[in-house]
Amino acid sequence: MANNKTAFAKASCMALMVCIAAALGAPFLGAMAEFTCCEIKPVIAACGSYVKTGGNNIPMECCMAVRNLRDIVRRSMHTQYLACLCLQDVVKQHHHTINTTAYENLPYSCGVALPYHFTHDMDCNIIR
Ligand SMILES: *[C@@H]1O[C@H](CO)[C@@H](O)[C@H](O)[C@H]1NC(C)=O
């Protein structure tokens, strides 16, 4: 048990370091920072449990994470496309446990206008 926890802590630390490296490294690579799936992690962390249950009580930190993501994807169409792929990847992995109504209403429920129609089966290629 202790070994499993240590292994998990190491794995998430490594994942975080990759995120930080990507975030820090990007500005030096050029003017346009490439969006990585790391950037949707706060949304998953803050909205994950709500999206499974639905209901009227959206956690405030979930809406803040959605708003942050909106500000990030406003950078460019390409960023919107990459963010879409990241989201769809997570949704596909968890489609059995996700309340699709709650998921699709997330931006609206938070009062955040995302630049694309937000559905569990949206086609990211139309953004490109
Ligand atoms: C799914 O979420 C919607 C919207 O929040 C809610 O009205 C509905 O009761 C939820 N459905 C289930 C099966 O939990």
Structure description:
The structure is a single chain. By secondary structure, this protein is an all-alpha fold. The chain has a single domain (2-26, 34-126), classed as Plant lipid-transfer and hydrophobic proteins (Hydrophobic Seed Protein, Orthogonal Bundle). It has helices at 2-29, 41-53, 60-73, 77-93, 100-110. Helix 2 crosses helix 3, helix 2 (41-53) crosses helix 5 (100-110) and helix 3 (60-73) packs across helix 5. The radius of gyration is 16 Å and the shape is globular. The protein starts with a helix and ends in an 18-residue tail after the last helix. Bound molecules: 2-acetamido-2-deoxy-beta-D-glucopyranose. 2-acetamido-2-deoxy-beta-D-glucopyranose binds at residues 53-55, 99, 101-102. Residues 1-25 form the signal peptide. Belongs to the plant LTP family. Keywords: Disulfide bond, Signal. GO terms for molecular function: lipid binding.
